[in-house]
Specification:
Strand order of the largest sheet: 2-1-5-4-3
Strand content: 15-25%
Bound molecules: adenosine-5'-triphosphate, magnesium ion
Helix content: 55-70%
Oligomer: single chain
Number of strands: 12
CATH topology of the largest domain: Beta-Lactamase
CATH class of the largest domain: Alpha Beta
Largest sheet: 5 strands, antiparallel
Number of helices: 8
Order of helices and strands: HHEEEEEHHHEHEEHEEHEE
Length: 456
């Protein structure tokens, strides 16, 4: 059954088509050469016979039957490959080196193949001959021919060689096709089996490589890295879901206990009002967290690329800085903007504004009073370099990659409000715009840098 399945594989069918084409063209070529050569040899024999007939006819015209008979007797005794027989109207032999008129039907001028017995001392041999028949005046018959035994034998051998080589070519090709398709099928089987295991839930399975470094290994490598990538994404998603569940439980619990405590003892209308306002504040925080998560998801799917438009980073920067001016002033922090030239890029205005706002918000939030925040925009090597630098505590080198993930907040900043999503959005927006994000040390403080490609 498995063996029969091999016949249905693409590899086998391809091998078969190739084999048939190859065998047909080889056969056609050899046959063409053979028929040409055989035809040439046959034509040569016929030509010699024709020439001889011409000579004999001349003899007959000049010297009549006795002359012709004499020449035939002479030629028959010559011992060449020529065959002659002169016969009466009833085909009884008069002269020639054939013992009797051959038993094949023939008319005037016909070409015939026949066999005759050649007797040499001690043995008789049956041989093939080719000849042409002529009727002479007076009802006599003349047959002039050539012994073509060797030629016919060679032709026979070539014909049987042709037949057997066709059989062998087809046989070997069939076996080759089977072996080839079995190899291909075996390699594909491994991939199919692995896929089935993965579908059935064994997500850690990978396609084994044969080490041959061929196209199957390349396919296996690509499949494996695709599976790795899917696994990474899936574990990332589970982590995000865990984090969301975990981080939203705290504010929801807080909201619930606040409401519960209010209900435990009788209270005045004023007290209820305060409790409800507190609850609204908590809910606003939750809504803001959800909005941030949705924004990050939007930036990560890449769908936002459809909204890309040409925009000037300098204009965006000064808008956001204006927005944060009151917050900085309240903490007596100097907020300075340095942007000498406009920088045109292609991007999503809303997402870039939000990312920039998050950076400036962090800088103001984590910098102690009387500090300074400098937001600058420079053009460098075909790039727009956006930098937010502060004089706060900075982020330790070891934590700089970590803080870009969702819900990560450093221990030192636990007493500031926040959900740990600000920098995640900045990172997602950077990825969406093919920009590079870099957190560095401003000694003291943090420098957050975003490098965008300029619009071309
Ligand atoms: N300018 C900064 N100086 C010092 N630490 C910072 C600075 N910016 C970010 N961090 C640290 O990185 C953490 C992650 O920042 P992120 O902006 O993602 O979250 P958050 O500010 O805590 O909350 P959110 O921005 O969602 O309100 C912060 O909690 C803080 O510990
Ligand atoms: Mg923040």
């Amino acid at each position: 059954m498995r063996f029969l399945n091999l016949f249905r594989t693409t590899a086998f069918r391809l091998a078969l088509v190739y084999l048939l084409l190859f065998a047909a063209s080889a056969f056609a070529l050899i046959a063409f050469i053979y028929w040409n050569t055989a035809g040439f040899m046959a034509a040569q024999t016929d030509e010699t016979i024709n020439a001889e007939i011409l000579g004999l006819r001349e003899q007959y015209t000049q010297q009549g039957l006795p002359g012709l008979r004499q020449v035939i007797i002479e030629r028959s005794a010559g011992g060449g490959t020529g065959l002659y027989i002169l016969a009466n109207a009833d085909f009884s032999r008069i002269a020639g080196n054939l013992s009797a008129w051959p038993d094949v039907p023939m008319g005037q001028g016909d070409w015939v193949y026949f066999t005759y017995d050649r007797t040499s001392p001690g043995e008789t041999e049956r041989r093939s001959a080719r000849a042409r028949h002529f009727e002479l005046r007076g009802g006599f018959h003349l047959l002039v021919g050539r012994d073509v035994h060797e030629r016919r034998e060679i032709e026979d051998r070539i014909e049987s060689a042709l037949f057997w080589s066709a059989v062998i070519t087809l046989g070997l090709g069939l076996i080759g096709g089977l072996v080839m398709s079995r190899n291909v099928t075996r390699r594909l089987d491994v991939i199919n089996r692995t896929s089935r295991d993965i579908i059935e839930g064994d997500l850690a399975r990978r396609v084994p490589l044969s080490g041959a470094n061929d196209e199957f290994d390349e396919l296996a490598e690509n499949l494996n890295s695709m599976l790795d990538q899917i696994e990474r994404l899936m574990s990332g998603m589970t982590e995000v879901a865990d984090n969301i569940a975990h981080d939203l439980r705290t504010p929801l619990n807080r909201l619930r206990s606040r409401l519960e405590v209010t209900l435990m003892k009788p209270a005045t209308e004023q007290e209820y009002r305060e409790a409800l306002e507190g609850a609204i504040g908590e809910s606003d925080g939750l809504i803001a967290t959800f909005n941030s998560l949705l924004l990050i998801a939007r930036a990560e799917t890449g769908e936002a690329r459809e909204n890309f438009e040409p925009l000037d980073l300098r204009a965006v920067l000064s808008d956001i800085a204006d927005l944060y001016e009151p917050l900085a002033e309240a903490k007596r922090i100097t907020l300075k903007v340095v942007a000498l030239k406009p920088a045109e890029i292609n991007g999503d205005r809303g997402l870039i504004s939000q990312a920039l706002a998050n950076l400036i918000d962090n800088a103001i939030k984590y910098t102690p009073e009387e500090g300074a925040v400098i937001a600058s925009l420079k053009l460098l090597d075909e790039e727009a370099v956006l930098e937010v630098r502060d004089t706060g505590p900075g982020i330790p080198q070891a934590e700089r990659d970590h803080v870009l993930r969702r819900f990560v907040r450093l221990e030192a900043s636990r007493n500031e409000p926040g959900s740990g999503l600000g920098l995640s959005l900045v990172a997602a927006v950077a990825r969406l715009h093919d920009a590079r994000i870099d957190l560095g040390d401003a000694k003291p403080g943090l420098i957050a840098t975003l490098r965008f490609h300029l619009k071309d």
